[in-house]
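Design job #97: recover the sequence.
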């Protein structure tokens, strides 16, 4: 039987393990496995990731976050934007081109930084980078 006395005032902790993935699709798989166990759909977009964090009562520990920072860094982000520009509709190509230009100029965000910003925008979640 599990004792809950030591955990009375503590929130649940969910661990995102950076060693489980090396790209955005892998990240979506990881968070779908963690947060969407009983759902029949999976996270597949940044907006979708943002959506599932509403109403989640957990803190998040991101293990191997330095690996994820590298994996989801400049190169993958550049490729991410270039693929959306190549695809065109329904994407706002002008906006994505602007984001790509900012990334190249060193003023834009990487996918890792975007994911961190999404998590931190949810005030009920504390993020710990390990």
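Job complete. Output follows.
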């Amino acid at each position: 039987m599990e004792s809950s006395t030591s955990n009375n005032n503590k929130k649940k902790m969910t661990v995102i393990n950076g060693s489980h993935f090396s790209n955005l699709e892998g990240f979506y798989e990881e968070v779908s496995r963690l947060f969407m166990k009983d759902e029949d759909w999976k996270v597949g977009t940044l907006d979708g990731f943002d959506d599932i964090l509403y109403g989640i009562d957990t803190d998040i520990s991101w293990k191997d976050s330095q690996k994820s920072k590298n994996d989801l860094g400049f190169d993958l982000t550049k490729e991410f934007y270039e693929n959306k520009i190549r695809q065109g509709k329904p994407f706002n190509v002008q906006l994505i081109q602007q984001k790509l230009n900012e990334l190249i100029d060193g003023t834009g965000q990487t996918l890792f930084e975007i994911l961190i910003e999404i998590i931190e925008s949810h005030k009920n979640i504390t993020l710990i980078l390990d």
